[in-house]
């Protein structure tokens, strides 16, 4: 019964919240002239923002941001290759996932640990952090941790051959829980935490990933010059 909930019910709840939430956030104004209107409010209401912290602890944002963004990009394409490879029995694609995922995962975990450290140890960054900043980081550490634990500590890989067809079934509206029910616990937890994370995603600053084609990228700059520079 729990398998049915987590691997049939939860994926559909996640898909609904993920896409529905992003569309709602993107088109329902909350502040400024967009309040109450149903239009593309993304840049207008200024809630579509990452609440940039680069202003403080400048030296440490570089490694954190670079590693976590490149890491997640590699992980995204590695997962995609792995699931397609798993669904169509393409061993080299699954192998690619294994090694690219390992490299990307380590890079990502390193970057995300830095990002969490900045929020804990730099007083200004700590002061401007909201609970969702920490919740996102903890989610990602847990998800990447389970993924890497399974592949690099337990040395078990190849779940893609079950996960690929299982994901295919979800999208074809013919979910088959038996494909994933036998996966190791660490991998099931990896997937469950990832699904919960994606359901939560639209209600956080992470919506910045979908800035394009909204006006966010063409809005006027928010000036973040240092006071010294302003006096010149
Ligand atoms: C619902 C979304 C996700 C699903 C279904 C999923 C599924 C999987 C599966 C099945 C594996 C093992 C592959 C195998 O044994 O063949 C894996 C590995 C991994 N996943 Fe995910 N994953 C998801 C999201 C994420 C996210 C968001 C992250 C990043 C935080 C992530 C990071 C990793 C890492 C680091 C590995 C180990 C890769 C390696 O060592 O090669 N996953 N994932």
Structure description:
This protein has one domain: Transmembrane di-heme cytochromes, Chain C (Fumarate Reductase Cytochrome B subunit). The radius of gyration is 20 Å and the shape is globular. By secondary structure, the protein is an all-alpha fold. Helices cover 66% and strands 0% of the residues. The protein starts with a helix and ends with a helix. Bound molecules: protoporphyrin IX containing FE. The site of protoporphyrin IX containing FE has 26 residues, from helix 2, helix 3, helix 5, helix 6 and helix 8.
Give a quick account of the main beta sheet: strands, pairing sense, barrel closure. none
- How many independent structural domains? 1
- SSE order, as H and E? HHHHHHHHH
Helix content: 55-70%
- End-to-end separation: 67 Å
> In CATH, what is the class?
Mainly Alpha
Beta strands, count? 0
Classify the oligomer. single chain
Low-confidence regions: none
Task: Please state the overall shape, judged from the principal axes of the Cα atoms.
Answer: globular
Associated small molecules:
protoporphyrin IX containing FE
Instruction: Please identify the structural class as seen in this structure.
Output: mainly alpha
Number of helices: 9
Mean pLDDT: 87
CATH architecture: Up-down Bundle
CATH superfamily: Transmembrane di-heme cytochromes, Chain C
Radius of gyration: 20 Å
- The fraction of residues assigned to DSSP E strands is under 5%
The CATH topology: Fumarate Reductase Cytochrome B subunit
């Amino acid at each position: 019964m729990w398998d049915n909930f987590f691997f049939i019910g939860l994926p559909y709840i996640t898909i609904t919240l993920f896409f529905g939430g992003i569309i709602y956030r993107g088109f329902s104004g909350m502040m400024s002239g967009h309040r109450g209107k149903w239009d593309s409010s993304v840049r207008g209401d200024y809630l579509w923002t990452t609440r940039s912290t680069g202003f403080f602890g400048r030296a440490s944002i570089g490694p954190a941001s670079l590693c976590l963004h490149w890491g997640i990009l590699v992980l995204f394409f590695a997962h995609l290759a792995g699931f397609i490879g798993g669904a169509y029995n393409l061993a080299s694609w699954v192998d690619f996932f294994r090694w690219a995922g390992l490299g990307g995962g380590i890079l990502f975990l390193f970057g995300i640990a830095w990002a969490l450290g900045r929020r804990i140890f730099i007083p200004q960054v700590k002061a401007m952090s909201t609970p969702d900043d920490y919740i996102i980081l903890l989610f990602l550490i847990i998800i990447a941790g389970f993924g890497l634990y399974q592949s690099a500590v337990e040395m078990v890989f190849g779940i893609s051959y079950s996960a690929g067809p299982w994901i295919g079934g979800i999208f074809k509206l013919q979910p088959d829980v038996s494909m994933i029910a036998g996966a190791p616990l660490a991998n099931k937890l990896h997937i469950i935490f990832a699904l919960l994370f994606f359901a939560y995603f639209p209600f956080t600053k992470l919506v910045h990933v979908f800035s394009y084609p909204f006006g966010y990228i063409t809005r006027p700059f928010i000036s973040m010059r240092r006071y010294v520079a302003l006096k010149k």
